[in-house]
């Protein structure tokens, strides 16, 4: 299961939004990943996500695989949209 997002946060994915996303993803047993420019990282790894250097306007794909993948995608989507990090494409 996956969803695409456009990052709308003025600073892109810096420390605060990365922390929110990692915290949301970490509460699920499924593998949750973020893909940007054909590079995929574990969304449960703050260093992996921050290392992507994702800027405003970037398109990212969030994917999840496992027993609670639907709940994981829904929670990450909620964080992205309600915290002003991005919008669904």
TrEMBL record:
Its main location: cytoplasm. Residues 1-88 form the HPr domain. Coiled coil: none annotated. PROSITE patterns: PTS_HPR_DOM. GO terms for cellular component: cytoplasm. GO terms for biological process: phosphoenolpyruvate-dependent sugar phosphotransferase system. Gene3D superfamilies: HPr-like. Keywords: Cytoplasm, Phosphotransferase system. The keyword Transcription regulation does not apply. It is found in: Cytoplasm. The keyword Cytoplasm applies. PANTHER family: PHOSPHOCARRIER PROTEIN HPR, PHOSPHOCARRIER PROTEIN NPR. This is Phosphocarrier protein HPr. It comes from Cytobacillus solani.
């Amino acid at each position: 299961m996956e969803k695409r997002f456009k990052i709308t946060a003025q600073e892109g994915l810096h420390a605060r939004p990365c922390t929110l996303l990692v915290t949301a993803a970490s509460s699920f047993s499924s593998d949750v990943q973020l893909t940007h420019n054909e590079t995929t990282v574990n969304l449960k790894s703050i260093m992996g996500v921050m290392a992507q250097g994702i800027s405003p306007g970037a398109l990212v794909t969030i994917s999840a695989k496992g027993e609670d993948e639907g709940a994981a995608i829904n929670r990450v989507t909620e964080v992205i949209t309600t915290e002003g990090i991005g919008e669904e494409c």
